[in-house]
Amino acid sequence: GENVEQHPSTLSVQEGDSAVIKCTYSDSASNYFPWYKQELGKGPQLIIDIRSNVGEKKDQRIAVTLNKTAKHFSLHITETQPEDSAVYFCAASNSPGFQKLVFGTGTRLLVSP
Amino acid sequence: EAQVTQNPRYLITVTGKKLTVTCSQNMNHEYMSWYRQDPGLGLRQIYYSMNVEVTDKGDVPEGYKVSRKEKRNFPLILESPSPNQTSLYFCASSQGLEMFFGPGTRLTVL
Question: Residue A98: its pLDDT value, please?
Answer without folding.
Answer: 67
